[in-house]
Prior knowledge:
By secondary structure, the protein is an all-alpha fold. The chain contains 6 helices and no strands. Helix 2 packs across helix 6 (118-133). The model has no long low-confidence stretch (mean pLDDT 85).
Amino acid sequence: MLGLETNKRLISRPAKLAFGGLLFAIVAVAVYMKLTAVEIEGGPQWLGPENWPVTVDETVKDILPRLPLYRKLQFRFMKKKDTNSEHFALGLWIRNRYGLWRGNSQLKISACGYECRPDDASGIIVDAVWEAIHK
């Protein structure tokens, strides 16, 4: 009997470790997704043309109170050169909310000095958010 019990322990222990490792990986991915997701608080997701900010400063003033604390902390510990990682997160939200794809030419001109691409304007706005958080 002693030999069989030893074999059962050897088989069940790796299975338990594998399950524990899988569970840990699932939790780690879920936490990472929660921490890196763009969660902007308050107000409608998209603004209409009558509510679009027309300068980068106005846009940053609208964004800052909406950013949750953990997103501000992410920016606080981020190097400015790493803000390009926000292109598909905060940058996409900026492009959609402030009408950069829907004709907000004044904001694009404020950001770039000319009517640039929405991606370029949102990148400049993300940099301005970074600078405001680092003041």
